Amino acid sequence: MRHARFSVLILLTLALAAGCGSGSKQAPPVTTTAPATTAAAKTTTASKAPGALLPEAASAAQGDIPDNQVFVTFTGPAFSMKTPEGWTQSGGGKSVTFRDKNNIVRVVVAAGPKPTVASVKQELAALKGAHLENPPVALKIGGLPAVKAVYSTKSAPNAVTGKSVQLIVDRYELGQGGKRATVDLGTPVGVDNVDAYRLMIESFRLR
């Protein structure tokens, strides 16, 4: 009987030892981690509105666009619009500026949703150096829904006279087919370009 009990104890001891040994050799559980998705990857970058239109203090000469001004049609890859003949043109493609002294017209076309009164108000609030003169209102330009607002900016002081030029800017935003156009029509304070600028914006067409 002693021999039998001794044999049973040996077997139990071996079984426990084997169990402990197999536990120590178990591989750690396999875990899989999905690639991290950043907030930037989830969010589509919204189109950024062009900065405020700024006058040049060095450009002292200014004046109304004359009643007999000849207009020619500018046709580019992104838009077409009637512009005063003889004005200096800079830029190209989707961003073009037309200038005569401190009479400045700038058109920027980019991908983006149709503008709303709320979106234009938010954009103008974020423009550095701009002061909102008239809040955004909805209207139509060439049959397209549009939003118009008015803001003002000032140039840096003239190095000689110390005077600044203040610009009043009519901003129009139009949207069509996933494209968004921002048209800034800038006029120095004291200059009357209402009729000429009305002709220009009413002729504007997205392409």
Protein topology:
Layout lengths: L1 H23 L14 H4 L28 E5 L3 E6 L3 E5 L2 E6 L2 E9 L5 H9 L5 E11 L2 E11 L11 E11 L2 E10 L5 H9 L2 E2 L1
Antiparallel strand pairs: 1-2, 2-10, 3-4, 4-5, 5-9, 6-7, 7-8, 8-9
Short characterization:
Helices cover 22% and strands 37% of the residues. The chain has one domain: 3-Layer(aba) Sandwich (Protein Transport Mog1p, Chain A). The longest helix has 23 residues, at 2-24.
Distance between the termini: 105 Å
Q: How would you write the strand order of the largest sheet?
A: 3-4-5-9-8-7-6
CATH superfamily: Mog1/PsbP, alpha/beta/alpha sandwich
| Low-confidence regions | 1-46
How many distinct helices? 4
Shape: globular
- Total beta strands: 10
Strand content: 35-45%
CATH topology: Protein Transport Mog1p, Chain A
CATH class: Alpha Beta
Computed Rg: 35 Å
Amount of helix: 10-25%
Any overview of this molecule?
The protein is an alpha+beta fold and 207 residues long. The chain is built from 4 helices and 10 strands; from the N terminus they run ααβββββαββββαβ. The chain has a single domain, classed as Mog1/PsbP, alpha/beta/alpha sandwich (Protein Transport Mog1p, Chain A). The radius of gyration is 35 Å and the shape is globular.
